[in-house]
Write a structure and sequence with these properties.
Elements: E1 4-12, E2 20-28, E3 31-36, E4 44-45, E5 49-53, E6 55-60, H1 77-86, H2 91-107, E7 110-117, H3 121-128, E8 132-139, H4 144-151, H5 154-159, E9 168-174, H6 182-195, E10 198-203, H7 207-215, H8 219-226, H9 241-248, E11 253-258, H10 264-270, E12 276-280, H11 282-287, H12 295-300, E13 304-307, H13 320-330, H14 336-343, H15 345-350, E14 366-370, H16 380-384
Parallel strand pairs: 1-4, 1-5, 6-7, 7-8, 8-9, 10-11, 11-12, 12-13
Antiparallel strand pairs: 1-2, 2-3, 5-14
Helix pairs in contact: 2-3, 4-6, 9-10, 13-14
Bound molecules: zinc ion.
Zinc ion (ZN) binds at residues 59, 61, 116, 202, 257, 310.
C-alpha cells in the first residue's frame, strides 16, 4: 500500500509554475504526486505559511554551531582566522556542536546543506538525519611538506565513507588559496574528476587574498609568517583569481565560496563554465564589512548563484530564510522570484541534488515559512517577503 500524505498551506510555490493560493501538496511514497487547489479533507492544514521548494544552505561549517555569537574580531580578517584557530574544539565538543547545528538546520526548515567537514562525524551524523546535500571534506596544507603528505590522502578522503543515499554525497573542500598548496589543489581536482565528486573552495573572498597570490605581500603574508607557515612563493603559476577558476573548471563540479571580490573579467569567465557555481553568504559578507557583493552582475551574466549561511563563527544563526530577507533589503532591484531561486533551485543545481524540490514525480523536498497571518495582502510575493 502506498503511503500518502497531504499538506495544505495559504500559498504553495511549486518549483516551475506560478504560486497557488489555498493549495495542497500530495506526497506519495516520498514523491510529489500532486499540487492542487481542490479541497482534500484529510490534508494536514499548516495554516498561514508558504510551502516552498526545499531551502538549500549551500555553505555551512556545522562544527561552529555551538557558538552563541560570531567569533571576534571580524577585522582584520586574519585576526578572525587566528581566533577561529584558537577556538578549536575537542572531538567530544565537536560532536555536540554538529548535532546542535543539524537540529538548527531542521528547525529552520532547511532541507539540504553543503557542509564543510573537518571530522568524519559530519558525514555520519548527516547520514542519520534526513538532510540532503554534500559533505565536503576540508583539506588544508600550504607548505610543500604538508601538501605532499596530504596528496597521499586525497583519494581516501573521498572513499572511506559512502552514504547509502542518492541525495547525500561526499566531496572535497580545498580550503582557500592562502591555505592550500597548488600541487595539493591539482591532486584534489584530479581526484574530483576520477571519482565524479564535487568541490567547494573559498575564493575571491577579499582583496588581501588577491594581493597575496598576485604579489606575495599583504595581510596574509604577515599572517603566514607569524604562524611559521610561510611557504615561499608557491603561487608562481597561480597569480590570478582566473588561474584558480580555470583550474577549478577542470573538476567534476565546483562551488566558488563567497566570490565577494570577483571582478568583471572573472565574471565573464565564470559565465562560460556551467559546472561552476558561486555561493554568496549575505550576512557573513556583512559581518566582514566587505564592499558590495557582485550578486547583480553574477545574475546578469547567467551564473548559477546559491546561498549559504557560512558557520556560526561569522553569522548569528543558520536560518537560511534570514539570508533571503537580507538580500531582499540589500538588493531591492532583484525580482522576488529570482531571490527565491537563489535559496532553492540554484542550491539544488550547485549541489547536484536528485530533486529540485516541488516538481511532480520527483522526490518531494519542501520547506515552509510563516506568512503574516493578519495581512490581507493578496500578492503572494509581497506577502512572502513581508
Ligand atoms: Zn566558509
Amino acid at each position: 500500500m502506498p503511503t500518502e500524505t497531504a499538506y495544505r498551506a495559504r500559498w504553495v510555490f511549486p518549483t516551475a509554475s506560478e504560486p497557488l493560493a489555498d493549495a495542497t501538496i500530495i506526497v506519495t511514497d516520498g514523491l510529489l504526486t500532486d499540487v492542487t487547489t481542490h479541497d482534500i479533507p484529510e490534508a494536514e492544514d499548516l495554516g498561514s505559511v508558504a510551502i516552498l521548494p526545499g531551502l538549500v544552505n549551500a555553505h555551512v561549517h556545522l562544527e561552529f554551531s555551538g557558538l552563541d555569537r560570531p567569533i571576534e574580531p571580524s577585522l582584520p580578517f586574519t585576526d578572525w582566522i587566528r581566533a577561529v584557530i584558537r577556538s578549536r574544539q575537542s572531538e567530544e565538543s565537536r560532536e555536540a556542536s554538529l548535532a546542535k547545528g543539524i537540529e538548527e538546520v531542521i528547525q529552520t526548515h532547511t532541507t539540504a546543506v553543503g557542509e564543510i567537514a573537518t571530522s568524519p562525524l559530519s558525514a555520519h551524523l548527516l547520514d542519520k538525519s534526513n538532510i540532503s546535500g554534500v559533505v565536503f571534506q576540508e583539506m588544508i596544507g600550504i607548505s610543500k611538506e604538508i601538501a605532499r603528505e596530504k596528496i597521499g590522502l586525497v583519494s581516501d578522503m573521498l572513499t572511506t565513507y559512502q552514504p547509502n543515499r542518492a541525495d547525500l554525497k561526499i566531496g572535497l573542500s580545498p580550503h582557500a588559496p592562502y591555505s592550500v598548496h597548488p600541487d595539493l589543489l591539482r591532486e584534489i581536482i584530479r581526484q574530483s574528476r576520477a571519482h565524479q565528486s564535487p568541490l567547494a573552495m573559498h575564493l575571491a573572498e577579499n582583496r588581501a587574498e588577491r594581493e597575496l597570490i598576485g604579489t606575495c605581500a599583504g595581510e596574509f603574508r604577515s599572517f603566514l609568517e607569524v604562524m611559521n607557515l610561510w611557504p615561499g612563493d608557491v603561487w608562481a603559476e597561480m597569480r590570478t583569481i582566473n588561474d584558480y577558476l580555470r583550474m577549478l573548471a577542470e573538476a567534476d563540479s565546483a562551488l566558488i565560496i563567497h566570490g565577494n571580490d570577483l571582478r568583471s573579467d572573472e565574471i565573464d569567465y565564470l559565465a562560460t563554465q556551467p559546472k561552476l557555481s558561486v555561493v554568496y553568504c549575505p550576512r557573513t559578507h556583512a559581518y566582514f564589512q566587505h564592499p558590495p557583493h557582485p550578486l547583480p552582475q553574477l545574475l546578469e551574466a547567467g551564473i548559477n548563484v546559491a546561498l549559504g549561511t557560512d558557520g556560526r563563527s561569522s553569522n548569528p544563526d543558520l536560518n537560511l530564510w534570514r539570508e533571503v530577507l537580507h538580500i531582499r533589503k540589500t538588493f531591492p532591484q532583484i525580482p522576488p522570484p529570482e531571490i527565491l531561486k537563489l535559496a532553492t533551485t540554484n542550491g539544488t543545481r550547485a549541489l547536484e541534488l536528485p530533486s529540485d524540490g516541488l516538481t511532480i514525480d520527483q522526490p518531494a523536498r519542501w520547506s515552509s515559512v510563516p506568512l503574516a497571518s493578519q495581512s490581507s495582502e493578496t500578492d503572494p510575493w509581497r506577502l512572502l517577503f513581508g
